[in-house]
Amino acid sequence: MDGKDTYYVQNMYRILPRESEGQPLTVAVPGSKSITNRALLLATLAEGTSLLKGVLFSDDSRYFLKCIQTLGFDTETNEEKKTVSVTGLSGNIPSASADLYVGSAGTAARFLTAYLGLSHGTYRMDASEQMRKRPMAPLLDSLKELGCEISYGEEARPGHFPFTLKGNGFQRDHISINIDRSSQFLSALLIASCLAGRDFTVNTEGSHGMAYIEMTLRMMEQFGVSVERPSRRSFLTRAGQRYRSLEYQVEPDVSAACYFYAMCPLLNIPVLVEQVHFNSLQGDVAFIRLLEQMGCDASDTPQGILLAPPRDGIFRGITADMSACSDQAITLAAIAPYAKTPTTVTGIGHIRFQESDRLAAMAAELSRMGIRCETGEDSITVYPGSPAPALVETYDDHRMAMGFSLTGLRSDGIAIKNPGCCRKTFENYFDVLDEVILTLKERAGV
Q1: Given 327, 378, 396, 412, which residue is catalytic?
Q2: Has this prediction a pTM greater than 0.85?
Q3: Who contacts 295 (Cβ-Cβ below 8 Å, separation ≥6)?
Q4: 357 a catalytic residue
Q5: Does a structural domain hold residue 198?
Q6: DSSP 3-state assignment of 116?
Q7: How would DSSP label each residue in 125-172?
Q8: What is the domain extent for residue 385?
Q9: What is the pLDDT of residues 375-407, one digit of tens each?
Q10: Is cis: bond before 138, omega within 30 of 0?
């Protein structure tokens, strides 16, 4: 990496041959953050010791792991082998009180809050300045309706970190929650729902992030608890179910893989990410289908999905509802200037409330490069153009850093501020990008 504070992206497009023949660029990515953190929580709820393999070690997962250790759960970690073992206690928490810090990890913030708020104990929870700004009120309001007592310190705003939870178990057998700002609110309640001691129903308002809800439901079932769907917006967990310990393989992170798949139309090269398949639990696999709409061809091979670039080397803009894979909105916007026609992304209003106001951040950085773009309440349109040299502000948002690194692979003078913010989910992303660049140079004879 070119220094600690700035990464200077190299324009690879100008040195690569225009034809796309030859071996695909093959990349391995770390384990999924979304699956890792769900598996860590499910393992604490199970009876017995689970062995998690292919675990992601990043800021988010380390904060989650530290929290469950602080709560008294027995764990063993091996970062070299990418394994974690967790001994669960069938929903019981060893420590009846604890101070927990979740950093900027949204999964830890929402999942642990629901678990602890519906248990029996007193827990003080805090987070990074970034996470303190992100919404928690819908989940906290639901927990209060279910019997949890919540208090805030003088420095806190109601509905935000920090706060203290005093759990009194489940005092009701149903709850409603709005998930317009985060599907994690619903996932959190679903994972904890089998602890209710009776049939428990969650009704939802909003439909954001349903791909992540499907991931939650499938992983719950893998660990032994099934959820019924009486209606499209209703989820019923029957009493008497318990999670079981497992030896569990975490999938590669499809969100991370998408940055490399985006290089396919961008650089006109075939790309394969190892062990990423269309039957993934992860909703971001839909991004590969969007790249197909732009002109690429995808085939699912035993080694992973192989993506071939457009036959004429030119990819076209599309209009796409990305509500199911909104983490990749930045990725698509970052390569959109090089498309033949405008690209419009819709269904992403909720990304204003993530690590940064991502809609505003995308528009600001594209404008900084001289690229015309227009934003709506839940959309952005990016017009074709030639990005000018720019120092990209990342807003301490890992997806801004990784996404806009792609822009610099086809234009001169693009640099990324604070590349270290990728520690949140993919701590060595820029090292992997350096390896990719070296491989491409070798193939081009440079």
Answers
A1: 327
A2: yes
A3: 265, 309, 310, 311, 312, 314, 315, 316
A4: no
A5: yes
A6: helix
A7: EE--HHHHTS--HHHHHHHHHTT-EEE--TT--TTSSSEEEEEE----
A8: 6-30+252-444
A9: 999 999 999 999 999 999 999 999 999 999 999
A10: no
